[in-house]
Amino acid sequence: MLAQNLLLAQNLVLKMIASGVRLESVLEAIVRQIEERAEGSIASVLLLDEDGVTLRHGAAPNLPEAYCLAIDGAKIGPSVGSCGTAAYRREEVVVTDIAADPLWADYAALALAHGLRSCWSTPIVSSSGRLLGTFALYHRTPYAPSAEERHLVAMFTDLASVAIERREAESALRQSQERLESLVHSVEGIVWEASADTFQFTFVSQQAERILGYPVERWVSDPTFWADHIHPDDRDEAVRYCQEATADRRNHEFEYRMVAANGDERWFKDYVAIIEEPDGSAKLRGIIVDITKLKQAEQSRRQAEEALRESAEQLRQAQKMDAVGRLAGGIAHDFNNLLTAINGYSELAMNRLPAGDPLRSDLQEIRKAGQRAADLTQQLLAFSRKQMMQPRVIALNTVVADMERMLRRLIGEDIELSTHLASDLRPIKADPSQIAQAIVNLALNARDAMPDGGRLTIATANVEFSDESASRQAHVSPGRYVMLSISDTGTGMDEATRERIFEPFFTTKEVGKGTGLGLSMVYGIVAQSGGRIEVESAPDRGTTLRIYLPQAVEESTSAKSKAAAEEAPPQGAETILLVEDEELVRQLTQQILQMHGYNVLAAADGIEAIAICESRAEPIDLLLTDVVLPQMNGRALADRLLEMRPGMKTLFMSGYAESSIVRHGVLGPGTEFIHKPFQPHALARKVRGVLDAKNGLNAGHAK
Fold first, then answer.
1. Taking 70 as the threshold, does the pLDDT of residue 6 lie above it?
2. Are 602 and 620 in contact (CB under 8 A)?
3. Residues 428-439, mean pLDDT to the nearest whole number
4. How much is the average pLDDT of 112-133?
5. Are 636 and 611 within 8 A, CB to CB?
6. CA 342 to CA 182: how far, in whole Å?
7. What average pLDDT is seen over the chain?
8. For residues 490 and 545, is the Cβ–Cβ distance under 8 A?
9. What is the DSSP secondary-structure string of 610-653?
10. CA distance 518 to 448
11. Would you state the pLDDT for residue 382?
């Protein structure tokens, strides 16, 4: 009988939920059902506020109103009565005597004043385990719940969870629908949906009447409205094109004129998407954009625009590349933070393993993959923005090999890429990012010269010019060079074109297909690197560009890095203030520095770092700070701290390129800087070098 009674009560609540009864009424019904079956109890439901830490009144018809008002807005915590504690712990909390239980120490007087002596609370959680609120059962005498009451409350707590989640879902859906409707009807165009078979509209946004003057109802009710109101000169072509594209299930866009209700002709661009339905049928969705003013402007300005078209396209391209560069810088910064942790922790783990441990090879692969990711980040920067020259001794073969995968994606599958790299190639001194950018530009030019496919060949070789050959070939000085050649089987160039290819803004491509800056940038990069370019080409015989770069005298950077990595890492005992907002990087950096003997004070932002300096009397020898921080950047923090501790040295770190930070005024030239991702030994050597530097060499950050 009891089970049947409970089932009826449960069905009653479920019907209320299903019929959309207000949440407050459903919760009150649940409370009353509990109170009827748990003799002497007073039930209450509190709901978790949007802030995630506050409990708000939900339903408690038989609790004193003054008490409900007093606890409305209570914060959850480890000792906040039964409800606040149950929400904090995410578990049932039973207090048999409020007067004696420490959980009620701050609230006992309030409860006792209203005749409440015991309280049992259980959290209300969603199906995914998210806290929604709490359910409480009060008694006016010391009391412990029975097994039957626990079962009863568990059942109705689940019902409360269902009701709350439904209210949240309905609210989210309603808000989403309102936002969508607002967006659709505010778009400067006619948003529409139509049958793919008949082209009859099933939905048209309210902008239709404002733009063309016809009521929305006519668009939907008249099966041939769209075709009937297209300008007679455009009707057949527009309808035919749309029918063919729809039959091919192909998204499409096209332009045509329509006749407005007042007789005006208006130009439109129609963007159409094919939507496949589960049953195999299709519908059309799109947006009709009014381009009348644009067409009128084109007509009146055509002659003037023809003369300015090239410069306008060049400006647009420059603006686009600048935006891509800023985006690439942000992506590189975030990736470099992650790669710092990946590479650093893998190296630390590998160093802790004995030489024969099988895990070392796995960690080496992780580290190599992390380094490749770091190299790709640098390639992204090189491709997307103009960098300051940072020449160093490099292996040209390594630059080409690292770019091979990216080049294959750039040139497409119909072009075969082959490389012939000299095994004994001498090192060169150049900026690897700039050399990579030059290779990309030349590869893209070669791709455009082979619209029907072909072969792109990249080769390297050692070359030595005597006095006679230097004056005759490529106009270089006598000496040893490294040659990079890029050959294609494309359309080639005649002599007149070949003589002008390095001129800024000269291009043989169609308007909108190029700026004429690519080869001039290559020329500038090679010239800045002390090299020369030779061009060999003829119509229908392809093109070969040979770049000659001087051989570097000093040891290559890779060899130096390897030798430096094999040196014993420098140790220290100084105190370092580390400021880094990325927790993974902060923990890794702290661990590296502590392994090398340093005392590390770690802070997540500038405010925390300032507090450490203010509270600590002992010296701090070095500030190691990220450049990009919340609230204040690294340079502003260093300026502030140096006023407090003039003798403290500063080392900056960042995932942004150093040249980018200097160029935008965040750091001054000559500032001590380490780029992320860094290896543990590299960080230790850099820190030791800054600490050992003479006073006065570290002031570059201030200006």
1. no
2. no
3. 85
4. 92
5. no
6. 45
7. 82
8. no
9. HHHHHH--S---EEEEESS-SSS-HHHHHHHHHHH-TT-EEEEE
10. 12
11. 47
DSSP 416-471: EEEEE--TTPPPEEE-HHHHHHHHHHHHHHHHHT-TT-EEEEEEEEEEEE-HHHHH
pLDDT 10s digits, 581-596: 989 889 999 999 999 9
Show the tokens assigned to 84: 């606040």
Strand order in the sheet with 543-550: 415-420, 454-465, 479-488, 543-550, 532-537
Look at the block and give the residue holding tokens 């090192």. 427
The C-alpha atoms of residue 280 and residue 183 are separated, in whole angstroms, by: 29
Give residue 568's pLDDT. 62
Nearest to 77 by CA among 118, 99, 107: 107
Residue type, 454: G
Q: Which residues pair with 456 in a beta bridge?
A: 417, 488
Q: Using alpha carbons, select from 453, 543, 445 the residue that is nearest to residue 493.
A: 543
The rounded distance, in Å, linking the Cα atoms of 490 and 540 is 7
Angle (CA) 131 137 138, round 5°: 135
DSSP 398: H
Give how far Cα 192 sits from Cα of 178, 236, 410, 556, Å: 17, 21, 37, 63
Q: Which two tokens stand for residue 485?
A: 């050649």
Tokens representing 281 are: 């049928």
Task: Give the pLDDT confidence of 445-480 residue by residue, as tens digits.
Answer: 889 889 889 999 999 999 988 766 554 554 567 889
Query: Which residue type sits at 16?
Result: M
The per-residue pLDDT for range 402-420, each reduced to its tens digit, is 888 888 888 888 999 999 9
Q: In terms of DSSP H, where are the helices of 131-280? A: 147-186, 207-212, 216-221, 225-228, 232-247
- Could you tell me which of 206, 191, 195, 198 has the C-alpha nearest to residue 270? 191
Instruction: Please state, in angstroms and rounded to a whole number, the distance separating the CA atoms of residues 326 and 317.
Output: 14
**Cα separation, 234 vs 227, whole angstroms:** 10
pLDDT, tens digit, for every residue of 309-356? 655 554 664 465 456 556 666 666 677 778 787 877 887 888 788 877
Considering just the CA atoms, what is the radius of gyration of the chain in Å?
36
* Length of the chain measured in residues: 703
Write out the two tokens for 434: 């700039």
E strand spans, 524-609: 532-537, 543-550, 575-579, 599-603
